[in-house]
Write the structure tokens for this entry.
Amino acid sequence: MAITITVADIKDSCGTCASDTMIQLYIDSVTNKIGECVENGYDIATATLIMINLVCHFTCGSDGKITSEKAPNGASTSFQVSKTKSGLRSSQWGETVYSLDTLGCWQKMFAKSFTFGLIGNKGVY
């Protein structure tokens, strides 16, 4: 099962927090890093939700919960940003990923690789 997420899917889910180009780059990154894990570990609906919410987390950053709005002719919007949480838990989308992804596929986004090598002369001692 290949999950296809589009820029329109992201805009429908979390708005327009970034340009289409940036959204597409995040979609590609999430798909490349965790796509196989979520596709093999979850049903298609859960896998899609995890991937969409992770892209929303990256594109929209910290939680932008709307706390107040005014009429369009006097447009004003207030946001409450999380100051006590960091990382994946810093946004509503990240919280959703954390809740749904019980296998920890999202952690592959941050996996570090380590390469060890030696440089020197081979000699006789």
About this structure: The beta strands are 65-69, 77-80.
